[in-house]
């Protein structure tokens, strides 16, 4: 089992410390609405040199609203995430996670959420239909269990990050790549708090440039 931390701020100053504390990967963000959240090339280099894997997540800031999930928004988010991935040198075929930050119903998943991820797929595919990057999803157990087949993933290549929201649907889902826990580590003197995450199969979908 590997363990990691998630944060919306740069972890570049903490890279060596996190590795020395036994963490294996970090979860960081791509965003076009909050540039301060963005993973940078310098941060990627520092994390890689410290021996930490990097799990990138796209979050538009609107993913808690069911109405946001449309094909058009998925394609737009996919295009923006693709630009961020290229900018930091993320290797092709590694995944980018996208967020479903509410307790989605099966009807939501079969409708707007599936359409959104089909839009993401469209954006991440090259002109010849080859997928430049893999897709990951953060959400409830119901989202994590149903979405891969809904978007035509018959190979099991969609990555899943199970949210730590115990009242969300199907939270007993077990076939996840990452499980979020709202345990927090505060790093003095800045008192920066990190969410703790675990990958039971040591396959969170991380990348490194080393």
Radius of gyration: 16 Å
- What coarse outline follows from CA principal-axis ratios? globular
Assign a percent range to the helix content.
Answer: 25-40%
Mean pLDDT, to the nearest integer, reads 91
Overall description:
With 210 residues, this protein is α/β, with parallel strands linked by helices. The chain has a domain at 57-199: Glycosidases (TIM Barrel). Helices cover 30% and strands 24% of the residues. The protein contains five helices and eight strands. The chain has helices spanning 15-20, 41-49, 71-88, 106-124, 141-150; strands at 2-6, 25-30, 53-58, 95-99, 134-139, 159-162, 178-187, 192-199. Helix 3 crosses helix 4 and helix 4 packs across helix 5 (141-150). The mean pLDDT is 91.
Q: Mind sketching the topology for me?
A:
Elements: E1 2-6, H1 15-20, E2 25-30, H2 41-49, E3 53-58, H3 71-88, E4 95-99, H4 106-124, E5 134-139, H5 141-150, E6 159-162, E7 178-187, E8 192-199
Helix pairs in contact: 3-4, 4-5
Structural key phrases:
210 residues; alpha/beta; TIM Barrel; eight-stranded mixed β-barrel; 8 strands; 24% strand; globular
Short description:
This protein is an alpha/beta fold and 210 residues long.
